[in-house]
Give the backbone structure.
Amino acid sequence: MTTILVTTANGATGRPMVDHLLEAGFTVRAMVRADDQRAQRLREKGAEVVFGDLLSFRDVRAALQGVQRAYFNYPLGAGLVEAAVMFAQAAREQDLELIVNMSQIQSRPRARSKATQSHWLSEQVFDWSGVPTTQLRVTFFMQWLLYTSGLIRHGRYVMPFDGDSRFAPIAARDIALTAANIFASPEKHGGRVYTLTGSVEYSHTELAAEVSRVLGTDLPFEQVTATEFLELIGQKRESAVLQHFEAAAIDLQEGRLAGVTDAAPSINGQRPTTVEAFVNGYRALFETDYAQAEN
């Protein structure tokens, strides 16, 4: 039986990936940071839960022991390249059949964002390792809308990007399904680079209008600075995160996230989630109790 390690298994892509892989009949080892209710839910689904830190070589080696395929995903912040080096080394030791690596659509060696540049360097590390690796260069998640759901509930659509910059948002569940299908056919996908987007490109102003239409409310687009945005959504203004947001705003203006690809629908055999379906799926988070009572 093939065992697949899913790192950040309680994350936006990790949780649905565990579901997809279990449904496909794989043995799943879910790597998380803490033994909490979310970890217990993974156990209840049928996953083997292990605890560890991607910046601990001992933890990574233990997590990959006896595994044949693995998903590598590292949260935004310092340490990505170091974590990739340790993961690649441990994967070589285990002679893994496939690594699926989460990267960014604007990955490149001269990226303004340290995090984006680190994603490009991590891609190189996995290629150098000799372990067959599929690189997923992913655009902005639709989950961005959830970060601002508290603001949307009170009639504000706020982003740290200009309204005319364009991208095609993709739901985390579609990314997870893509990775699960890649894991099912390692010989077909190993060594490939896929750019994953949703099926419809929007400007940020157009996206605000689409969310407004679905919710039946008025949400004019509002641009703020990256610092103001982090304060509004209650996130720490860590320098690495702030610098990444500021660089991403320029990337968007330069068109580095524009365009639509067919990678996800081709691999999955279905269209990616629409913005309308995504918003309706999380509708309770976007509406006040008063608004829900009136519907």
Notes: The first strand starts at residue 3 and ends at 6. Residues 290-295 have pLDDT under 50 and may be disordered. The domain at 3-138+172-196 is CATH 3.40.50.720 (Rossmann fold). The first helix runs from residue 14 to 23.
